[in-house]
Amino acid sequence: MKLLKFNILLLFVLLSYNLSSQNISGRIISSKDINPIPFASIAIEGTTIGTVTNFKGFFEFEIPKKYKNGTLIISCIGYEENKIRIRNLQSKKNLNFILKPSSVDIDEVVVTEKSLFPYTIIKKAIKNIQTNFINKAYNYKLYYSNIDITPTNRTLKRESIILMSDISGYKERGVYKTFKSINYKFLQSKRNFEVKYISDGNTNIDDLLEFDIARHTRNILDLNRVSEFDIIIKDETVYNGDSIWILSYKNNKTRFSSTGDFHVNSYSGEIYIKKGDFAVLYNKTRVITNNHSDISRNLYNSKKNNTDLKKISYFFEVFYKKEQKLYTLDKINYEINYSYKNNKLNKNTKSKLVVLKFITENPLLLESRTYYENIQEDKEFWAKFKL
Q: Of the residues 49, 142, 194, 211, which has the fewest C-beta atoms closer than 10 A?
């Protein structure tokens, strides 16, 4: 009986060990002068899972249980790579890893592994969204404009004032929860065309709102999809008085779950992240697709709009600003171009959303979305309106 109890206890201990993660911490230093090495990478070989050292060379890293038999790669440009078996670490604390300076001139170094630092910046920015942005109910009062240039060179223009409500704020970023949280209605509108058909009253507001990448997922700020992007630090500079990182990214999977577009062929862009609080300040994205739904880009369209269609390309950019000690949406610009073999069929649409007012006190919570706009123009309102 005692032997049986002992075996059960031993089995429990072994299972507990196998199911738990390993936590290691320490410092990376140079063998040349024993000085700390900032921004050195500690990564699990064959993955983008890892961390980087701080300015003093320190790091903390929780290793997922499934990689307990893997290998850690410790690296930094200008130093020789160091590899260590994870099972030899056994959740040790205050480890010292020493890197030897490389004998190869830094201009000759070819980096074959992904640098982890850009991924660390993006992940930190994602985790800070709910503290940097509002995390309770609010309203945006928005100005909307849309200009369609048809194949016959006719220009159709719509301008509107929209009230948008969000019941949860930027803390809820799942696709379904976000959709359920956000509603909007048109308050004012004017057009240079008459609404005769349902298609005339349709707008692309849903697409524009989804370009608010801090509020929505299926983009570069999706914690579950970061590994599907190639990310590099393009520059470190000053933007509107703030020190920032400019990160360039490209989606290497080109699928709906990480881009929000069913027909995507190419998806790339740049994002500005503020140093210090890791706030998202600006993003621009370029997309090329082979098809598109006229209702929404994230809806599947089984038939091509025209067999003569070559490609659809679109570009969107989103600006954020700080207001009431929180970062909020400032404006969104969007342009989509349809290219055909017969150039006479080409068409273009330009849209934008501008936040006129950010309301946090007693916000009006709407119960639905107004997809169809057919408001009679209030000439007196538009005569006084200035953007």
A: 194
